[in-house]
Amino acid sequence: MAGDGLTISREEEEEEEERSLAPLPSSGRHHRRKSSASAASRDGFPNPAHVRHLSRTETERLASSQRELADSNSRIVFIGDPGGSDPRFETPRNSIRTAKYSPITFLPRNLFEQFRRLSYIYFLAIVILNQLPQLAVFGRGASALPLAFVLLVTAVKDAYEDWRRHRSDRIENNRAASVLDPQSGRFLSKRWKEVRVGEVLKVLANESIPCDMVLLATSDPTGVAYIQTINLDGESNLKTRYAKQETMSRPPGEDHPVDSAGVIRCEQPNRNIYGFLGNMEVDGKRVSLGPANIILRGCELKNTAWVIGVAVYTGSETKVMLNSSGAPSKRSRLETRMNRETLLLSAILIALCSVVAICNGIWLGNHSDDLELAQFFRKRDYSDGDDKKYNYSGIGTQVFFAFLMSVIVFQIMIPISLYISMELVRLGQAYFMVRDANLYDESSNSRFQCRALNINEDLGQIKYVFSDKTGTLTENKMEFQCASIRGVDYSGGRVSSRDNGEAHYILAAGKQILKPKMSVKTDPELVRLLKNKGDTEQGKRAREFFLALACCNTIVPLVVDTSDPKQKLIDYQGESPDEQALAYAAASYGFVLIERTSGHIIIDVLGNRQRYDVLGLHEFDSDRKRMSVIVCGPDKTINLFVKGADNSMFGIIQNKVDLSMIDATKANLHAYSSLGLRTLVVGMRELSRKEFEEWQSAYENANTSLMGRGKLLRAVASNVERELHILGASGIEDKLQEGVPEAIESMRQAGIKVWVLTGDKQETAISIGFSCKLLTEAMTQIVINCNSEESCRNKLQDAVAMYRKFAVISPDPFENALTGTGSTKVSMALIIDGISLVYILKTKLEEELFKVATACDVVLCCRVAPLQKAGIVSLIKSRTDDMTLAIGDGANDVSMIQTADVGIGISGQEGRQAVMASDFAMGQFRFLVPLLLVHGHWNYQRMAYMILYNFYRNAVFVFILFWYVLYTAYTLTTAITEWSTVLYSIVYTALPTIVVGVLDKDLSRKTLMKYPQLYRSGQRDERYNLKLFTLTMMDAVWQSVATFYIPYLAYRQSTVDVSSLGDLWILAVVILVNIHLATDVFRWYWITHVAVWGCIGATLICVIIIDCIWTLPGYWAIFKIMGTGLFWLCLLGVIVAGMLPHFSVKALKEYLMPSDIQIAREMDKFRRINAATMEIQMNRFSMLQL
Amino acid sequence: MNPTGDSTPETDGATERRKKSKKPNYSRFTQQELPACKPLLTPTIVISTFILIGVLFIPIGLASLSASGNVVEIVYRYDIDCIPQQSQDDKLAFIQSSLTNKTCTTTFNVPKNMKAPVHIYYELDNFYQNHRRYVKSRNDKQLRSKAYELETTNCAPEATTPDGSPIVPCGLIAWSLFNDTYSFATQSKVIEVNKKNIAWQSDKDHKFGSDVYPKNFQQGGLIGGAKLNESIPLSEQEDLIVWMRTAALPQFRKLYGRIERDLAANEQISVTIENNYNTYSFEGEKRLVLSTTSWIGGKNGFLGVAYLTIGSLCIFLAVAFIVLYLLKPRTLGDPSYLSWNRNPDGH
Known about the structure:
- Chain A is of the alpha+beta class.
- In chain A, helix 36 (about 1025-1050) packs antiparallel against helix 40 (about 1125-1150) and helix 37 (about 1060-1080) packs antiparallel against helix 38 (about 1085-1105).
- The longest helix of chain A has about 40 residues, at about 930-965.
- Chain B has helices at about 45-70, 90-95, 130-135, 140-145, 170-175, 200-205, 240-245, 300-325, 340; strands at about 75, 105-110, 120-125, 180-185, 190, 250-260, 270-275, 285-290.
- Chain B has nine helices and eight strands.
- Helix content of chain B is about 25%, strand content about 15%.
- Chain B is of the alpha+beta class.
- The longest helix of chain B is centred in the N-terminal third of the chain and has 28 residues, at about 45-70.
- Classes of the chains: A alpha+beta, B alpha+beta.
- At the A-B interface, helix 7, strand 14, helix 13, strand 16 and helix 36 of A face helix 1, helix 3, helix 4, helix 6 and strand 6 of B.
């Protein structure tokens, strides 16, 4: 969930989000971070007033007290004294190491990593078996070759990646930092990698922070520093950090020798980037340190001339390094299915081996008398004279050996090369997805990212999409739309489309013009009301309303230069997009926040600069669901401004207020949220001196208390936030992202169910549902929002009854909904809220919910917590086989993204946590459509075909070997040379399947986008299932029979030698399987031609080379046999006879039972013929090229 | 091809100012829009493929059948006939004995004119020259060069003599060299058998060394077959070279020699066979074959029949597909066949 307001309406969600499952203990935004950080770390956070006014007393209190931080478990850093901080060199230097291996450890570690795959162990076992002299079927080198090849390819890939990491590490480690030299007191240049804990560093504007450091001083007199954390969490807004006043006054350096500097105690390194806990002892005083006092490695200093800080965590202990975890590892559905077929193949393998072993035993038994003398067996060894057996140890052992040997010979039944091919193909597919211009987001300048490399093909089988709302469906760019002041609705700005430029309030400050960076369309009537000095009640309230918007926030205005030197822009930097929107709105109406310093803000109120002292600030928290400030205006009145969610605000209003005004406001609020606007209510109260002093003392007490400070502060806030006058309410639009309704419609047609899980209110969720065409008027809405298990059960039962009722009308909507082939059914939408889900998930009602939810076309869950999001995903995942995809952008989506089969992060406005947890990341929601319908479909069909083809290809070969073994007295002789056997799957036939797996497209992008229904072929497992596997295997058996027996019968009773016949068989099978592939290729690129025909050529060359080695028995055989006509006739006969069934069945099936994809292919082709478009020329061009 | 990161670390130069657009460069390759040919199995293609194959295969089949039919072949199984009547019960003893006369003669009639050269083969059946123990039992290095004389790896149990000196050529294959001999005569006039150039030239030139002479050969406790003349280098021992090209299948022929003159039809040829080779211990069969050759090799009708079968099957399939396309016409690429158009509520 993105960018909901710092202090604004999305209260329930905030509460839930604290329970985020994210790997980082805290979640995406600032206030959440604070609330989740411990109370002790709160002091002095972005509350300049508090720093200024209260720090003295606060620190005195703290100095004499024990912190919650236990000394035993803390790190002690002597400022400016690395030797004292780390006398035994226990903490790492500031060098980082993202590389996994060093040149020495590379080999063992990399091998260890690789052998964690079970299949590699299998292949290793076979290689080892083959080393036993009794079983040596292949030469030792030849048998180890395939495994060595696979290991080598992977190792080279790993080594290259690691080398790149080494290189970037080196660059990073050798950057220059300026470090204080304790002797001279000057800052000297030092390499990053040499920085140690305790050293004092100086960082200049726009420099990167070399390590995690506690701020000691900044160029700003109040101790503020601005940092950009885009590399850390992706947020581009500037964050404010503070140096403590105690150290501000005398920054370490030339004037202040370091020996008098203090000691910092802080927590041990951890990965919480939003938490820090520590204290600093300066001059005998203890000052507490929180997350606002630390700047982290990976950030950049902005808008601050310099900062001085002391390194507390370095190198691998920095928070950014502790957080850099690799991509999650998931297994694709296809690969899981593939394992089932691999088991089947293993069964076939064992069967073949058993047949060979048993026949071998029988043959030995039948010939036991003959073999003593038979020249080709020679059981008895006469050479030594004594009567011993030569290499023979009884039938039982021979049978056992025969079994093991046949396992070695037939091992490639389980295709080892498939694993490496799949990796290469996925790499290629990822390359094309990343390079796809259609998946590039202009606005955030982000490409598609493939973070997980092994689930590309899952994208083609998605059945459920779980989407976050804010920032995913919407842009998370808040725009102020309308205001309700004293119950009067001012939504003229929203209605009128004209952009009245006058309203942009321009200030003449000296010679310069200041202008807010963004302007909001204003309501003319409201503008008139504000400009009218006449003191009507309405005008007064309107002014107070906008004053409240301008000051009740934590926005930092920054003045930015423009190309026009006379004009400057005010850029509001804040952590909540809602607050920014409100500040810009206030500016457009003439209440421009110009400056914020630690104790006051300056607001230009309709042309007059006014100073407001900020006396206190109560941050947003999820209990109160509001925030408030106490300001002292120019007229010395003290006002409390509160803004918060409607239900929290209406509870604390003044009772004797005009009820009709409240009702009108409520009506307006309802209207706004029905429009999909995010609402919040603004109230104020004037505090008397007495009240203020009471509050001040309570506030100070709370602030300096040691235990449960957060709770006390909340109590103080609640105490003062009462009897408010309601000033009005605002409506902020969270704009839908471009193309969202179209994307949802496409996905619906593609048979993908889109569920929206949001933290928003029910009304907002429903209205967004309508605006993105998820919900339509024709749908029956089932709303479940209950407060007890009982009522939830009733509601669910009602819902079940409802769809049963529809079931009477139409045959079976439930079944239909599941199979996606419904008839005339009433579409239903389920809207359920988080509180109900608490009673449903993980109870018996889950089953009911599942039934109802799957029967509905649309499911909208509102006010759900991150854990519940994950719960809903697993509700589907655990009960169906359907693939789930979760898409979100915020920290609260992390759990959902990790739970779903495919997790997609939106790399947009909010932090990077969703992206870090995701498998794929992209800039826009609408990219889901090309991603799933085009790339997903392609990847699925390519990978499915590749797996089947690899199984088939190796099976043909194994069966040919098997048939031959039947004519060698079952002794596992191979006619095909051992080198060819080994090279078969890694050289002779590998490249074409990889090329086809990367490049082949069954349908064009245009067609796939035009007919989203084609996506369903993936959902139906059309390209890879047991039936296809069986058919392919039958084809493999036939082709092996044709390949083996045609030459066998033709060469029976001839002088042919084993090598020549072996050469014929290997050539025949390689050509056959490549032609088989060729008939299945959808699109012939020049690369495909090169790969397929090149591979056949390469095979011929390899066979020739092998037959040119005089130490092999087959020397010169290929030249001899190629000189005979019989060879060529056999080759041609094998290919035609082998292909005949495949070709006929394919032609028959495509004609009689065309799949949707087949028809779409024909449409592709025929449109081309009829329309004679560009494509024809393209094809001609390609023909010429080829 | 690292899919995620080709971002180079930004240098602190002036380039940092303007953030580089990461928009992928357009190219037909990266957008997967390379020109391509999209073949489709249209009825025309299917039918013409079948007809083409049929038209190609049937003549080839006929040609190879006739070629095979023109080959004249005389096959004579002599392993039983050449055992005297009294030894029929114990053939093994007969063949193993060094005292028995193993010469046997027979005559046969030439059925048709046989054009020179007439190839003389011996054919063994049930002899597993491709048996795993057997095929491995040789050492090609030793065969090739005198320098490798001591190289007897894989040759067991015929590697060395009991005193350890190497057997050249070592191994079971050489040891079991076929040693029946044939001589032919017609009306008491001897027919010359040319035993030159029966082995592959490549074997003689490169595989079997001209400086390698047989040594310690066939001197063990068990005689496997022929002895070799120790004064002739291996490269000249063509019978051995032929024998060492191990056959692919348990029933095989090996070239014995050639008769360089035509044999007229009805010519009576008498053959004198020295029946030395022991196939009796494992129920092997021995045949003598005289055959002419053609472009397709020896007499084997299989390929012709196979080609005729495939060809006519293809013609049949072509007809079947024509009938199918006529009976069940379907417009290719008609959207109304799409599953969601066939049952419109289907989503």
